[in-house]
Every structure is written in C-alpha cells, then in structure tokens.
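A.,

Following up on our hallway conversation. Structure tokens first:
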C-alpha cells in the first residue's frame, strides 16, 4: 500500500460507527465523489484497503483522492437526503449524473389577438407567453399536438388577421381538424376562447379537462344552449379519440413511470416512459457511465431523476431490484407527499410495459455505441439467462482435440460483441503430459491463459484482455477443471460455463455447477452459443490436423541420419512440405537453421537415393 492510501486508510479508521455522508476530494480540494453510509468507518475504510476487489471506476476515483470530509447524521434516511443535496450542489465527477440529449422545452403562446400555440426549445424576447420549462420535449410536443387537434386550432403558416378571407379552407377544415379562421369560419372571440381552453388542457391534463367539459355540457343542456352543448360534446369526443390513439397497451394503472435500462461495457442507457391518464405522455433517455451493479445504478438513477422533478407518480415500475429500496421509497414519499409504490413485475401487462421500455433503451444505446441493437440484445438475453452482472461483450471459448491421446492441442476463440474476433484466436500445444485426459488438458490451457493475462495486462496484446465469460466445450467435468485451474489467478472471478452437446453433437444447453441451463427456447442465445461452440471445435480440429500432419512429416525426416526432432521441425518450417525438401539443393538445405553441410548432404542423398532406386 502506497503512502497516500495508508494515510487515508488511517484517517478512515478514526471515523465513527454512525450513519453519515462522506465527500472525496482531489488534490485541488474539489469534491469528486459523495456517498452515504450506515457506518462511516466501515464504508470509507473499504476504499483505501486492497484495490483488487474494486471496480474500474472506483479504482480510478480512489487514485484521485487526496483527502476526504464527512458529516455525521442521525439516520440512514437523513444520510440519503443529505447525499442527494450535496450531489446536486457539487455535481461530483464520479457520482452517477444524468446526461440526456435534451435541454428544457417550452410551450409558446403568441400575443392576442389570434394567438398561436407551439412547442419550442428556448425562450425568445418577443413578448410571447411561455409555459414551462419542461424537462421532456416529448411531453411538450405531444401536449401541443393534442391541444391543437382537440380545439381545432390552425397549424399552417398563415398570419391572422392578414390572411383572413384570402383563400378557401384547406383539407384540415374538411376533416374537422381546424376551425378555418382563414376563411372566416370562426369569430375572433370564439378563437381566443379555444386558445385559452387549449392552454388549460395542456396545464391540467386530459382527465381533468374532460371532467370539467362534461359538467359544462350538462349545464349548457339544462339551459337549453344546445349549440354550445354540442360543441362541448365534440371536444369531449376529441379528447377520447386522442387518448385512444396515444394508448400503448390497455392499462389498468392510470399514472405511473416505467423505467428500464440497457448496458454495454461501462455505458448504461436508462429509458423512462411516463404514463398519465393511461396515455404515454413522454419518453426520455439518459446515458450514464458506470461499471457498478445494476441495483446500485437503479437506486442512484431514481435519486438523480426525481431530484429535478415535481411530478412524481404514485407508481414507479422498474426492470429489476434496487439498492436500499426502503430508503428510496421513503425519499419518494417525502418528495410526493404521499406513498409511492415501486413495482418490479415478473409477468402480465406491467411486464410488457417494462419490455417496451427496455427495447427503447436498447435502441438508443445501440445508436450511441454504433452497434446493431440485435448484437446488444442477444448479449443482454445471455446475461439475464445465466445470471451475469454485466454484458458479456468479450467471450472466450476453449476446446481440446487429439487422436487417442496423440498430438493433443487446445484452441481458444474469442467473440467480441457477439461476433468472431479472429485476431485474438490462440492455439496451445499440450506439453505437461501425453495421453487422453481432457480435464488435465483444459487445466493446462487455462493455467497458461491466466499466466499470459498477468504477463500482458496493460499491453496491446489481446492476451491482456480480461474476458467477461469463459465457455468450455464440454460438461461439468471440464468446467470444474477450468475453475480449479483459475483459482488464485487474476482470472478467478471470470464466470465459467460449459457448452453441452446432444448425442448428435449439436449444442443442447449450458452448464455451470451441474445444473443445465436450457437455451433452445431462446433462439438468439441458442444461435450464438451454437456458433461459438462450432467455431472453437473447428479451430481445434484444424490445428490438431495440422499438428498431426507436421508430426508425420517429422517422423519421416527423423529416419535420416543426423536429423532429430528439432532439425525436422526447422526443415518443415522452412520448406512447408516433404516434396519441397526432397527437391532442395544441398546449399538450400544448409540455409536452414541447424543444418550443417554433412546433414544437408545426408538429406539430399536420402531423397535422391530413393529416386535412383525407383528409376532402377
């Protein structure tokens, strides 16, 4: 442990066993990370001990810590509240901070008479009225489109009163989507009343507006104002039509946010679908850089997302578990002023909503990292199927090939982002024993692989890349042999699974500790694992055949006086085939490493003697 870490560790040991918040600072005194703890001493000391168990992001953060401060509070909940406040204040580099593609949006209402309503990205100094700001541009655009349609307000570029009476109404009037002020079909007073009603609809939502319109319609009917009642009835019907067109699925829950994530490497995309009155009113996407587990990421995303929002629904639906969920619930309850339920569905309509949201996140993430969504999707499916904590972007697979224990070889293939990464393929000759023992062969190959990783770590050599998962062509025996070989190595924490074949040598399942994981029902995962298994088997067989052929050639050459195993190997390396060696001159043979003139003449005479014998 270096002196800096030792000093920080000693300081952390003096912290109290009480809940609180800690602030990590760099050499300039800038706060780079804010965290909460149930016990300050227990939590902070973990940062400055062994760095091997930390994620990459935590190691980077700790490497920049020069000092830290702390604040003691009365409870974990107080620590959470203070953590949120300090993160908002300092915006620390290593905390999860939301980065989306959107700024604030506004609803613009031009001055009367003949006001126009539109969605805009920023305010202008033009005497217009602006509603907002809103954090979701999708919500603003949808709200304006709905309001214009319901209240039959124009969407064209004509100016009023300048263009009134100068042309016939356009198609929108005839399909009942516009009141046609251009043709004088509506008075200025009626138009302004429609604008004011549209603004009210945007501000209070469809359900409240509909309830108010029904009351007004009934009152107008009682007062025998049938024309006014009919107009209100049409607006109610328009609200219903818009609602039906916006509905994604038949929803029992009227107001909720649905949140799901997709991860590739250290980039995670969170998607949010916001439902109000059973309709989807906005979609948002946020990218965060984190290599923490998803329970931590979800918790801190919720804190960051709702920190800047006042519109918190009674239900938040998520795609997985949340760290410190009871604290998050208490915090949301305090923010909303009433109970907020966190829902993690496993089936049914709510699960479908989560899947829709997850696909949105996947699509946005794929665009961000420049990959096809199908690649990320199959890796996500594999990750969930076998219970990995991160996306298996870098997969190594191993197989052994031999003939009755002769010329045993091992093969390693790599799939990067679900595609073969051939420059990282490697081959191994089994050196530690001779004979037929796949378990010992796998153990030797994985031991050597771990050694190469330690030697090449931090270099451009692909052996220096740590795989996300290791696959072995075989069952539980091969898996145990691989895991045993990787114990006490830098690759000991890499998940190892076997690829099991059926009686016809086709991929059937995966295995870890004896339990088989069926994959044939997961078409994309099945196709990927089958491709990996076939590729590593092909690569192993191909290398074994080459070695067997080379061994046969070596045996032929070793019949010649003065040619041993090493010289035979050098001759094959130089000339490739026995035929080319037989046609080589003495001088050409002498150019090979280790071949003297006497040995070259023996080789030349051997082949030419055979030729002479044949001719005689």
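Then the amino acids I'd put at each of the 616 positions:
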């Amino acid at each position: 442990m270096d002196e800096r870490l030792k000093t920080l560790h000693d300081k952390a040991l003096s912290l109290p066993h009480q809940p609180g918040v800690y602030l990590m600072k760099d050499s300039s005194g800038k706060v780079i990370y804010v965290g909460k703890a149930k016990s300050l001493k227990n939590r902070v000391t973990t940062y400055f001990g062994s760095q091997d168990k930390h994620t990459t992001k935590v190691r980077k953060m700790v490497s920049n810590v020069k000092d830290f401060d702390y604040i003691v509070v009365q409870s974990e909940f107080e620590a959470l509240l203070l953590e949120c406040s300090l993160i908002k204040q300092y915006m620390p580099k290593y905390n999860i901070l939301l980065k989306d593609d959107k700024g604030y949006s506004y609803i613009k209402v031009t001055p009367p008479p003949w006001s126009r309503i539109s969605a805009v990205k920023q305010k202008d100094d033009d005497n217009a009225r602006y509603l907002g700001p809103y954090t979701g541009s999708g919500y603003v655009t949808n709200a304006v489109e709905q309001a214009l349609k319901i209240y039959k307000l124009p969407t064209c570029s004509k100016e009023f009163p300048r263009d009134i009476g100068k042309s016939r109404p356009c198609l929108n009037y005839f399909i009942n989507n516009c009141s046609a002020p251009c043709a004088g079909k509506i008075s200025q007073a009626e138009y302004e009343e429609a604008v004011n009603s549209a603004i009210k609809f945007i501000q209070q939502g469809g359900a409240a507006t509909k309830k108010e319109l029904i009351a007004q319609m009934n009152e107008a009917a009682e007062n025998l104002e049938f024309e006014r009642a009919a107009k209100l009835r049409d607006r109610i019907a328009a609200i219903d039509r818009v609602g039906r067109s916006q509905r994604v699925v038949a929803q029992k829950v009227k107001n909720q946010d649905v949140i799901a994530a997709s991860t590739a490497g250290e980039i995670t995309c969170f998607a949010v679908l916001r439902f109000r009155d059973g309709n989807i009113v906005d979609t948002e996407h946020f990218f965060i850089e984190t290599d923490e587990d998803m329970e931590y990421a979800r918790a801190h995303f919720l804190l960051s997302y709702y920190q800047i929002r006042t519109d918190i629904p009674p239900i938040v639906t998520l795609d997985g578990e949340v760290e410190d969920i009871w604290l998050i619930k208490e915090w949301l309850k305090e923010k909303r002023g009433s109970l907020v339920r966190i829902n993690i569905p496993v089936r049914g309509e709510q699960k479908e909503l989560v899947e829709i949201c997850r696909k949105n996140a996947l699509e946005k993430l794929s665009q961000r990292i420049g990959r096809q969504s199908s690649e990320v999707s199959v890796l996500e499916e594999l990750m969930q199927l076998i219970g990995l904590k991160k996306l298996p972007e870098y997969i190594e697979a191993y197989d052994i090939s031999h003939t009755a224990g002769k010329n045993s070889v091992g093969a390693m293939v790599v799939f990067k982002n679900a595609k073969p990464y051939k420059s990282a393929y490697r081959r191994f000759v089994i050196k530690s024993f001779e004979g037929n023992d796949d378990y010992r062969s796998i153990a030797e190959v994985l031991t050597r692989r771990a050694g190469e990783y330690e030697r090449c770590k931090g270099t451009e050599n692909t052996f220096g890349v740590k795989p996300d998962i290791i696959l072995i062509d075989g069952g539980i025996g091969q898996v145990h042999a691989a895991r045993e070989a990787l114990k006490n190595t830098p690759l000991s924490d890499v998940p190892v699974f076997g690829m099991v074949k059926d009686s016809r040598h086709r991929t059937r399942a995966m295995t870890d500790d004896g339990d088989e994981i069926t994959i044939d029902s997961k078409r994309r995962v099945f196709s990927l694992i089958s491709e990996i298994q076939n590729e590593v088997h092909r690569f192993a067989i191909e290398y074994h055949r080459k070695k067997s052929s080379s061994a046969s050639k070596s045996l032929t050459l070793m019949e010649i006086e003065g040619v041993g195993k090493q010289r035979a190997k050098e001759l094959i390396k130089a000339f490739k085939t026995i035929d080319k060696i037989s046609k080589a001159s003495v001088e050409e043979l002498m150019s090979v490493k280790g071949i003297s003139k006497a040995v070259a003449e023996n080789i030349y005479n051997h082949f030419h003697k055979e030729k002479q014998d044949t001719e005689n």
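The radius of gyration is 35 Å. Curious whether your intuition agrees with the design.

B.
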